[in-house]
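Exercise 3.2. Students should predict the tertiary structure of the chain below and write it as structure tokens, then compare their answer with the key that follows.

Predict this chain's 3D structure.
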Amino acid sequence: MMGSRPSDWSPLTGGDPCPGDPDSWQATINHWSTRKTEIDAIRKVLNRGRCIDGRSNRITKIEHTFELGATMCEKISGEFQRVHDVLTDWQKNLREMQEKADAALSVARQAQIHKEETQDKLRFYERHSLTSALGRLSADLSGSMIFSLRQDISEANACIATQQAVVDEIREQYTSRSATAVNGYNISGIGGIFVDRSSGASGLAPFSSADEVLSFFLGFDAQALTLAFETAAASDEFQPQLLDALSKLTPQQINEYFAAHPEFARFPLQMQGSNIDRAEAYKAWWAQLDENQQKAFTIAAPGIVGNMDGVPYTVRDQANRKLAKTVAEDPNTDEATRKALENLLAAATMKDDGIPRYVTSLDLSNIKPENEDGYDYNNVLASVSLGSVDDADKVTVVVPGMTNNVAGSIEDLVGTGDNIYKEQYRAEQLHGTNDPKLAVVLWIGYETPPHLDEEGRQLLGGKTFTQSKMVTDIYLAEQGGQNLAGFIDGLNVTKSTAVTCERDGLYSDAHISVIAHSYGTTTTAEAMQVSETKVDNIVMYGSAGLGIESIYDANSAEGWNVERDAKGRQKIFFTDSMEDWTALGGYLPGWLLDSSLISKENRLLPYAVADAQRFQSTEGISADGYYLEDVDMHGFNIDGDNQGYAHKQTSSLVYGARAALGYTEDLDLKLYKPYYYESEGDSLRLVPVTAADCDENGRVRPEIMQKVRKAQSSMTGDQVLTFAPPLSRAPTRG
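Answer key:
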């Protein structure tokens, strides 16, 4: 057996360029050689049946049957030989690369030893000049020796650099050749070489599908597993059988089955029934797998694991990143999907602020041919978390509105989430939590209404106008509400410490809140009608209108699935702005025109929800002197010099972030109005506070702040909102 690889590759950089044990591949090579021998034996038997003495139609048909079987076996044998040859070549290449790399390392180490010894001699000669003791001749000899030693060091460095180039080249070869081996080691191609079982065939072929081959050579019923996938998607009655069948697979069987069935590996399980029951089943199923099975499913079936409620979100992140990278690099992936996945991975890359980011869901179901709708902006549905959902004490799910999609706005949305995360971190510190553990999930898990110019492009391209995709229609909110309810229910079940459950108050121990914007508020209202677990708080910014049925449901005795405060009110909060004219476009057309032309259901603002409480969105100054901006537009964050609802250091962000955390008592606190009085003769002049009165942190200078307090002396300190904790720290973790 090959010895272990060198662990120390100094003086070369980059580590082992070709890890692995060539001898470890021998068992697999032998396996495929044996499989070829077995199928060749079957082929020989079938070939003997191709020449039967006598002539008749029956004999001819029998001979034809044997011929078909022998031909099929020959093709399978060739496929097994191809896999055998691919692995044999890889084993040979790996051995050769390792021998060459180890030789380069040995030469480099010898050069390094010689270099270090030479450097010691050089330092000696440079420190101990013999000139004064032995005269000019010794000085000349010393100088010549120093020159020679320096030349030796230079040659040693050159030798090391040469070996580094050798190793770097091997590293590139390893990447290329290993990819070739992985791509070649795939027997899914056998699916295309089966005998045609048409009316003229005998029907006696030993294999009629790729699953039969997998079943025969991998020791499990692949056909039954494929059937389990199909039946579980149709009825929740068969879901336990699917999970049970999956749990019995070995890591090798997991890898081989999903290599042959990418249609299952890339997409979420299509399960019916209750969100809670499904999440509970997934959670229990994942927990009973051993570590090697979990790793195999994460790598081989990332579309399943990455969207599976009950699985830790750090594991889902690994699976979703794997899936995004694989599909983005697939040459068959269309450009719109590739761009969306690349943008998703960029948005999920941690920035300098040190807040970890996770891809908490990635649904590619819309790229399936049967789901094609002529639009490509909705190909990818996904969510990114700032902070670890697994570790967070409080999780806020952010639901955006119109024109938001992974391809075009995921990075901007994560930037908005960064504002919310940092504001919530600050609020937690202000309320006494020294090391807040938070997560803010930016959820684009539904198709939002496209921009009007997208509809225009579709019409110009000959597409039919789609009313259901308009922001004035409630259809996308209904569909998205189902998805959001599933995500929230899965989040509650995954994070809950409860083992068993009662339907009332189920899984309420995790702190989950929702912040929604624009059409996202419409979607959230729809979700609250169908969710099976409760959220702690709902915050709505710039609502595009809530469906009438949603409002009826909220105002019913039972209400939405949201916690209630001490007064029995559902914890629903909202704000809007006199400068936001865009939100009107979501709900007003339904009242002005025949609603059947633009929407199947009219909508109303959150004011119509009896328990909904409005919070401030106008500018003001906090008790500790920070100037909080007002809302200038409909957007979530910023457009030029205009601030949106969740822009940093706006009153709407501060109040909304605290409402989502549960600090609803802060909503009763006010802000100083940004003005003070100056004497002007016998009268007083009203002076507005401007940016010139603030420092670089947006804090009003002390002398101006003193005038503000004096001008509004009726407000006591405990009635005014405080913005920052006394010793504010930048967030460094999730």
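Discussion points: Confidence is low (pLDDT under 50) at residues 130-137, 191-206, 499-503. The chain has 23 helices and 16 strands.
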